[in-house]
Amino acid sequence: MVNRAQIAYAKARLFKGKALLVFGPRQVGKTTFVQQLIADTNKKTLILNGDESDVMALFESPNVLKLKNIIADNEILVIDEAQRISNIGIALKIIVDQIKNVQVIATGSSSFELANQLNEPLTGRKYEMHLYPIAFLEMVNHEGLINEKRALEQRLIYGSYPEIITNPTDAKEHIKLIANSYLYKDLFLLEQIAKPVLLQKIVKALALQIGSEVNYNELSQLTQIDNKTVEKYIDLLEKAFVVFKLPALSGNVRNEIKKGKKIYFYDNGIINAVTGNFNPIAQRTDVGALWENYIISERIKHLNIQQSEVESYFWRTTQQQEIDYIEKNQEELLACEIKWNVKAKLKIPATFTGNYSNVSSKIITPNNYEEFLM
């Protein structure tokens, strides 16, 4: 079992008078993470699964007496897939405010706001963290740097969900199962997703456009789905931790794109599962896009583990000058070119360096990527 780097962060926040919320996609290991988290607390624990109908019924019309009866003499209450429970925000607020000897840990495979479950109820009463597919840093700590670098092609094709890591020989079967059966489960249960087939068309279209600026009008024409539906479904996919957006950096440079966005997947395996392409890297024409998605998603995971407040962007002008990835740390900018070709040279446009100050730059290739992800 791979040790998750955020365990120490989570442990330090137990029994501080707040709920601990652990968000992340299904099958990412949230339940295992929580089991590790509470293993050595020596506290009596009640674990409930929000996917089960009788558990959902328990939390209908929550009040203090009802919740005390549910919790009984347990000191930790764990609610898995809590987003499935109506009024979960109100229930958690009551426990935090009025049953103070109990530590609540709730996991969600979509943000609770997706179903309007939280927002106001837990303001100031929660610690929130995100758990993603296993990060490069976590694998290096588990397997060693040399072994993890040798597994690069496996990661680019099949990703790094826990089940893919532990059962690499069945990686194709498992990642297809995750992509087809689990990943959108919460979205399909929402009334807002009237036609699941439309969601799948949008996901496939996004997977085929990795590294390109996303244009909702073009996606609408490509998928034959109206603009508003495309935008709504992409927003839902982001809230369900399937994809994330990278906005365009804009200052006062003439002709730079100011409102653009790129969309990446948190896991490369999902890209290949929805496109149905598991060919080896040597046979791929999209290796540059796979590499870009891998590096940027792994960097986002790394920043998440570090609890970093760095802001991430891309940059492009109408003349097609571009920078793949930029980090803004207060007034400092890091401009990164992400290239699969190890012989590629770093080329940051003079338009960028001439108009932005405090800029450092680097090129990231298979020869040096570990420096960026650790």
Task: Give an account of the 3D structure.
- It is built from 18 helices and eleven strands.
- It is of the alpha/beta class and 374 residues long.
- It has a five-stranded parallel sheet, sandwiched between helices. A four-stranded mixed sheet has the order 8-9-10-11, covered by helices on one side. Strands 6-7 form a two-stranded antiparallel sheet.
- Strand 8 (311-316) and strand 9 (322-329) form a beta hairpin.
- Helix 10 (171-182) packs across helix 15 and helix 12 packs across helix 15 (268-275).
- The protein is globular.
- The two termini are 20 Å apart.
Brief overview:
By secondary structure, the protein is α/β, with parallel strands linked by helices. The protein contains 18 helices and 11 strands.
Which descriptors would you attach to this protein?
374 residues, four-stranded mixed sheet, 11 strands, single chain, five-stranded parallel sheet, alpha/beta
Spell out the helices and strands N to C.
Answer: HEHEHHEHEEHHHHHHHHHEEHHEEEHEH
Question: How far do the termini sit from each other?
Answer: 20 Å
User: Helix/strand/pairing class, anyone?
Assistant: alpha/beta
- In DSSP terms, counting alpha (H) and pi (I) runs of 4 or more, how many helices? 18
Shape annotation:
globular
The largest sheet has its strands arranged as 2-3-4-1-5
The fraction of residues in strands falls at: 15-25%
Would you count the extended β strands for me?
11
Helix proportion = 40-55%
Radius of gyration: 22 Å
**Low-confidence region ranges:** none
